[in-house]
Design goal:
Largest sheet: 5 strands, parallel
Strand order of the largest sheet: 2-1-3-4-5
CATH superfamily of the largest domain: P-loop containing nucleotide triphosphate hydrolases
Number of domains: 3
CATH architecture of the largest domain: 3-Layer(aba) Sandwich
Radius of gyration: 26 Å
CATH topology of the largest domain: Rossmann fold
Strand content: 15-25%
Helix content: 40-55%
Number of helices: 19
Length: 453
């Protein structure tokens, strides 16, 4: 933990000396000044005489407990951020602390990585963050290392939409094939919104059992049904004041769709078996790999709910429609897995890159990521060549798309062939123009037109 941070002064409040000392040492190694307090009263004295960027606050302490101190800090020192610490974690306590304004929740014993993540989440954002969020590799989500990779024309349009819709509370519907990165887009919208310091709760609607879905979403009270031995907070309550992400929302039954529509309209809900209404302040983002319009026409999805969810639609193109991003993604995944596997970063030969770029990738970015990880695990080489690629990729019908089953327009064929020639000439435009039978100026115009930089 040696990277510099925007957080300079931290107050560590815990009645256990060994915990205070361990955290303070970790902070000092990161270049962060820290003060220690053994209880809530001592912490209040320090807060009255010194400004702290962050308070790491234990919940269970004698006399003045952490939750009471959290309330005081949020009232008297609203600019000071608070991360709670506890050795006795419960969902109820987590929800309560977040509602009171805590940014995060660390459970003892926690690792340096956990502390690092909490510090990163607590860093204040500079006014120019949003403008600087787009790098040469893609759109930054919440840190320079967490990106949506892409610089194609299609992805730049999506990045622009994300920047425009993020500050609002409008509902967003993200569509696209499986593996295109729908949840990453949802995370980016949340990270750039005014709710960034609150919870981002993601629920995969296809992974939940229908009979339990209502209880998972809304929660239930003790004794409301067989097996309900205690009151449970649902996902909606956990996400209150934050962002709720419905992944694969087309899998919701019509009954749950009706209840969701009521929640969106009334901004309140009731736990299963309860008569008390709970006010709800959340931003809803949904995603689907199906065409919801078709589901509406077939009667599988409510039309009124569809229009409520799709105020701002964002469609993610499949990887085969933005192939200029593939080399960028390959480089990113090679760096990621080389670091993880602790091996030298390999190069990719031109023939291997051509094959990887022209492959259709039915599983999209997720499939490409898994493919690169597989290659690095199985192939011990400094240069990845065509022979190192999986057979399902190399056994193609031809070098160019006119040999595939999918039809392409003449313009798309031209774009692909120009890209192919530029790779073969290693970007030398004069040589590429000679092969193509056009002058360099015309080639330059076509490179600009197709985004082949």
């Amino acid at each position: 933990m040696k990277k510099q941070t925007a957080i300079k002064n931290v107050l560590v409040v815990d009645d256990e000396a060994v915990v205070r000392t361990g955290i303070s040492r970790a902070l000092e190694n990161r270049g962060i000044r820290s003060r220690q307090a053994a209880d809530g009263k001592e912490a209040l004295g320090l807060l009255a005489h010194q400004r702290f960027d962050l308070v790491l606050l234990d919940i269970r302490m004698p006399e003045l407990d952490g939750i009471s101190l959290l309330r005081m800090i949020r009232t008297d020192y609203p600019d000071t951020r608070v991360v709670m610490i506890t050795g006795y974690p419960t969902i109820d306590t987590a929800v309560h602390c977040v509602k009171l304004g805590a940014l995060d929740y660390l459970v003892k014993p926690f690792s340096l990585d956990d502390l690092e993540a909490a510090l990163k989440k607590s860093e204040p954002r500079s006014p120019g963050t949003e403008k600087a969020a787009v790098s040469s590799r893609g759109l930054e989500i919440d840190s320079p290392d967490n990106l949506i990779i892409g610089r194609s024309r299609e992805m730049r349009k999506i990045f622009d939409k994300i920047r425009k819709v993020a500050p609002t509370d409008s509902t967003v519907l993200i569509t696209g094939e499986s593996g295109t990165g729908k949840e990453l887009v949802a995370q980016a919208i949340h990270a750039k919104s005014k709710r960034r310091d609150r919870e981002f709760v993601a629920v995969d609607c296809s992974a939940l059992v229908e009979t339990l879905l209502e209880s998972e979403l809304f929660g239930h009270v003790k004794g409301s049904f067989t097996g309900a031995h205690q009151t449970k907070h649902g996902f909606f309550e956990l996400a209150n004041h934050g962002t709720f992400f419905f992944d694969e929302i087309a899998n919701l039954s019509l009954r749950i769709q009706a209840k969701l529509l009521r929640v969106i309209q009334e901004r309140e809900f009731m736990k299963v078996g309860d008569k008390k209404r709970i006010r709800l302040d959340i931003r809803i983002i949904s995603a689907s790999n199906r065409d919801l319009k078709t589901s509406v026409e077939s009667g599988d999805f409510r039309e009124d709910l569809y229009y409520r969810l799709s105020v701002v639609p964002i469609h993610l193109p499949p990887l085969r429609k933005r192939k200029e991003d593939i080399p960028l993604l390959i480089k990113h995944f090679l760096e990621k897995f080389s670091t993880r596997l602790k091996r030298p970063l390999p190069a990719v030969s031109d023939d291997a890159m051509d094959i990887l770029t022209e492959y259709a990738w039915p599983g999209n970015v997720r499939e490409l990521e898994h493919c690169i990880e597989r290659i690095l695990i199985l192939e011990d080489t400094n240069v990845i060549r065509a022979r190192d690629l999986p057979s399902f990729i190399t056994q193609r019908q031809g070098e160019f798309p006119m040999f595939s089953e999918e039809p392409y327009s003449l313009e798309e064929l031209e774009k692909k062939y120009i890209r192919f020639v530029l790779r073969r000439t290693k970007g030398r435009k004069k040589q590429a123009a000679e092969i193509l039978g056009i002058n360099r100026k015309t080639l330059g115009l076509k490179i600009k037109k197709y985004g082949l930089y």
